[in-house]
TrEMBL record:
InterPro entries in the record: ACP_syn_III_C (IPR013747), ACP_syn_III_N (IPR013751), Thiolase-like (IPR016039)
Keyword terms: Acyltransferase, Transferase
Native source organism of the sequence: Mycobacterium celatum
A single MF term (Gene Ontology): 3-oxoacyl-[acyl-carrier-protein] synthase activity
Keyword Acyltransferase appears in the UniProt entry: yes
Pfam family, one: ACP_syn_III_C
Record protein name field: 3-oxoacyl-ACP synthase
Sequence ranges assigned to domain Beta-ketoacyl-[acyl-carrier-protein] synthase III N-terminal in this UniProt record: 115-193
GO biological process: fatty acid biosynthetic process; secondary metabolite biosynthetic process
All copies of domain Beta-ketoacyl-[acyl-carrier-protein] synthase III C-terminal, residue ranges: 245-335
Amino acid sequence: MTSTAVSLTDVSTYLPGEPISADYYAQFAGSDDLAANVMFRAPKFRHHVAPDETAVDMIERACAGLIERHGYDVISNIDVLITHTQIPDMPFYGAGGGIAHRLGMRPSWVLDLHNGGCAAFVLALNVARRLLASGEGRSALIAIAQNAAGQVFDQPGVRRKAQSAIPGDGAAVALVTLSDRSPILDVECRTYGEYAGDMTIAMDPPRKWWQPGPGEGCIGFTETKIAKVLARGNRQVPEVALAVCDRIGLSPKDIGLLVTNQPNRVFLRNWREALEVPRERHRHTFDECGNLFGAGIPINLDHAISDGQVNAGDIVLMAAFAHAGDFAGAAAVRWGGRG
């Protein structure tokens, strides 16, 4: 009998270049009213994309582990390709077509997700689960590239700001299949449309992002905006995580591993405490990689699997929020091992 369960079968990741230390940004630091804000306490290290490295390059390199463990045919025969790129190589379209071509795929579905932000992996899991369960294929590849750190935040004018020292670059891919090996137990996705547009690009003098002019674009943070984002993130991530736990009948403090996005240490601590998860069961790589945006969850999960922190039979709870709080999601998987 054909299994109708959908599993997160495997993950594989890529971190570009050598680690860049906090000292790199300290040498450029200018006068910044937000420098002392808890949002911008820098990680020890992070990685940056190379100047000529594309999102498609990053995804191809992230796929190496999947190909090594499962064979090239598993990747080339993918039915559904779901991508998310923080900074698209071209502003008019996503990376899906380029990734499919580079990896020799002919998928029936190619979906480029943009609204998922830092919770894009959870959103992509939900889309993949729904499509495969409805008969649209037997396998899906989720591909996420975070490439803003070395491109946006390392601009000469932007790297003087406190915000520039937080992001890091990386890519991740996940294989989702019709299987009962590592079943996706439940997913919760919530859209908070009232907060859409609260994250903005700031330029001096002001202009639209595509218009030419002096001054480089950065995130338009203010003390008021930061306070709102902290309040929303502190609330939303535990809410979606608890919703999933309630439906699968498990207390969050009893899960095997919690994996979240990692904007900063404050969120990591607050989420762990709100869900009553011990520090040793909340995996993050903030001090090694910084804020990895949408790639954070799969990169952290890959590290936990490789280190033996998560074992076959453990429940992995993933949760994140996006942008200034306009989207949040959580998912639970019973990990079955890489096999």
